[in-house]
Records
---
Amino acid sequence: MDLYGILKSAHSGWRYVVFLLLVVAVIQALAGWFGKKTYTEGNRKLNVFTLISAHIQLVFGLILYFLSPLTKMASSEAIGRYWKMEHISIMILAIVLITVGNAKSKKVTDAVAKHKNIAIFFGLALVFIVVAIFMMTKVGPTKTFFGMS
């Protein structure tokens, strides 16, 4: 297997880690926000691990962006446009939201406000990621929501 294949498999597999951590972080943040719970060290660690996993995924994705034949396709084709512009834009936006949410939660002292920041920013990132995945399955008939690609 060549470098491209290894990175593609890593990027495809690592998405489950990012997705799972993001879902758990959003659920915990919503429970903390609406349940007016304290912000624990466990919450902080989960949010940091989510942030780190998203940034690792970004590194894999950026390397793939320059190696992938999909990004060499014409932008006039739906699949080429998706991989060249839409996927990377949406995913970078999602990672920016995760980063901003984590930073904003560190700046406030109130536990409920910390949970609220995480819930809003991580939640928006999760929505963007799910939308991007659905867009991928629409333009790439061989791609599936949970399948390895």
---
Amino acid sequence: MSDSIDVDRWRDELESKRAEKDEFFADHPQSPIPPEERDEFDGLDYFEPDPAYRVSATATVHDDPEVVLMDTTAGREMRYLRVATLEFELDRDDEELEDGTFELAAYQQESPNEQPLFVPFRDKTTGQQSYQGGRYMELEPAEELEDGTEIVVDFNLAYSPFCAYSDTFDCPLPPEENWLEVTIPAGERDE
């Protein structure tokens, strides 16, 4: 983890966000859990919080964002703009896991409204320990992105799209440029 944080406080905040999400999934009318399955729902499964997967990424901003058509789980295409590329390093203590420098593209929909950066990705847990359609992160930079801006990418906040819980949703699939050839055991996982 490249920036210094209070790990205990970070872990408490992460656990609190996870508890809030479990409550939403269990009780809220807009929960993706089908109503007939909510009584049995006892919370989402997560990898253990690991600060090694909270990294600082350097942004390269695309002034003239390219349109990217993402396939969806329902066989359609959704238009996004590739607005930035985020480069980060992973340094793990576990010798079996690869270290290295990686890149993820960050997208936004074509919309005049401010919106978080959408970062869909696949990694070596996809389809085994995590949802087969990949996982998502939404990043909200503290300042306007410019080349060289440092932004925190916390894979512990990676989540499965609603499609993982119900076929009634249509979700974009991570494009091939966001397929990481590394294991990211952080965030939501499959049961």
---
Amino acid sequence: MAEGKTPIPSAPADVTDVDPIWDDWETPPRVPSIPELHVDGFDGPLDLLLDLAERQQIDLGRLSALDLITQFVAAMQRLAGRVTLERRADWLVLAARLLLLRSRLMFPASPAEAATAEQDAAAEELRLGEMLRIRAAATWLEARPQLGQEVFARPRQKQDGRTETTMALLEACLVVLRGPRSRPETAPLYRPVLMQFWRVDQALARIRELLAADPLGGELGIFLPALEPETGQGGNRTKQARGALAGTFVACLEMAKQGEIGADQDSLFEPIRISLPQPALQSAQAS
């Protein structure tokens, strides 16, 4: 052994619970500068976590307040006899500041936000209550005996066709014996009145007939048919007039497309004039 060095005592033979930090007799004990925390989203010392939280460079919402408190209390208890009271007090201040920042995320910052939070909480509570009732009803239904599994229905008896025929014959005989008054009255049938509209084929025949008599033709209105007089049902004459105009207009477009007639209009919304096409008109005038 060299001179001037104090011999390191060996560990007692009766020591069974050895702390690798404080009870290592081969190396001098070391005192941690600050407790280290290992939570979701962060692994490191307490002062670094507080600094990141104050500068808003870490999401405190991910950190569990319960885990922070549990790990800090465990570190304080483990280091109670080895760290001075002043240093532990500094650690407690840092932990309190950190928990204050974390608690602000759990409470609203204004009365309006508090009222909104209360409404959301009430709605969530109501939804959870409805979910519990639905689950209870579903559990009750599942516990009921299932048809075809726990219980079985009695099979239906096949009905004899002769019995039904006999009953129908007896009912018919009873109606005949009671006379005509016992027969059920026939329910009145609803038969809507069908309106006769001017069809496209009728409009085609009328246009050809009028142009054969007068090749110069005229406005579209002269090719409309004569309407029936009012029958007492409101709006029938108006509907017939609209139907006749629509049918005649469709017939006019079809004949103009095929080249049978000429259709002209001076400007927008002006009356449409119908006549024979120019070659046919010159031939008719020459004859």
---
Amino acid sequence: MAKGDIMRITVTLALLALSCGSAAMAKDAPAESSALRGLARCKAIGDSAARLACFDQEAATLLAAEQRSDIVIVAREQVERNRRAMFGFNMPDVGVLRDHGGKVETLDQVEGVLAEASADASGQWVFTLRDGSVWEQTDMNPQTWSPRAGDPVLIKRAGLGGFRLSVAKAPGVRVRRVR
């Protein structure tokens, strides 16, 4: 990987990490860091050797801040894994889920695999996925199908903040995430 690519990745990850400083700050304005301002200042230097020296110095400052946990650098793939793991929970707005335009990125659906499913005494289903998430049926619609471990599951956002779970392409049921 070229030195410029490493620097671009470092700056991108630092910007992403800084955006999660606090929920209140993320809602109002993007977080700023002197380390990032320093990197931006370096970019404007015309002389190649001076620009490289500036980048080296500012990268060291950024890495030291990360070592002290003054900033946390999070890879986008980790953010995506966390977003998927939190799908179905009502979470506070933390800046790390925002794109550069300030829009909150949300998932509309997730796919998974059924680990187990059981119906309680009233006929309401409880679905446990292989990823450990647990979903309870919230509607009163009786189901004629019998889900089995290993069946593919699709959970989509539904109206009014709810979710709809379909197992093996059977008609879906309204659910809420409990774990």
